[in-house]
Amino acid sequence: MTLDLLPLGQEAVITQVGGEGALRCRLLDMGLIPKTALRVEKIAPLGDPIELRVRGYALSLRKEDARNIEVEVRES
Q1: Are residues 76 and 13 in contact, defined by beta-carbon separation less than 8 angstroms?
Q2: Cβ(68)–Cβ(61) under 8 Å?
Q3: DSSP letter for each residue of 18-68
Q4: 16-69: per-residue pLDDT in tens?
Q5: Rounded Cα–Cα distance for residues 43 and 6 (Å)
Q6: Burial of 67 from C-beta contacts in 10 A (0-12 / 13-18 / 19+)
Q7: Could you tell me how far CA 20 lies from the centroid of its own chain?
Q8: Rg, C-alpha atoms of the chain
Q9: Alpha-carbon distance 51 to 44, whole Å?
Q10: How much is the pLDDT for 76?
Q11: What's the pTM?
Q12: CB atoms within 10 A of CB 24
């Protein structure tokens, strides 16, 4: 499943970061690396962007960028 499809309040673990060149580097620099846990905190009224809780901080990410991140859902 990709990160853009994760529902509000759901926790997951990153399994793979895709994208090419500068986009992939930017995602990795923001702390979105494999085996990192995250949770969807908020979704904007029109659905874009989404706010994540990752590594103790809030991160807003466009859905277009979130499509490049593969996640595995954590069971609560």
Answers
A1: no
A2: no
A3: ---HHHHHHHHHTT--TT-EEEEEEE-TTS-SEEEEETTEEEEE-HHHHTT
A4: 999 888 999 999 999 999 999 999 999 999 888 999 999 999 999 999 999 999
A5: 10
A6: middle
A7: 16
A8: 11
A9: 8
A10: 60
A11: 0.86
A12: 14
Token pair for 16: 């793979």
- 28: tokens are 């990795």
Q: In b/e form, how buried is each residue of 29-63, taking b as 16+ CB within 10 angstroms? A: eeebeeebebebeebeeeeebbebebeeeebebeb
d(CA 60, CA 58): 7
Residue 39, token pair as written in the block: 């949770």
Tens digits of residue pLDDT in 12-29? 999 999 988 899 999 999
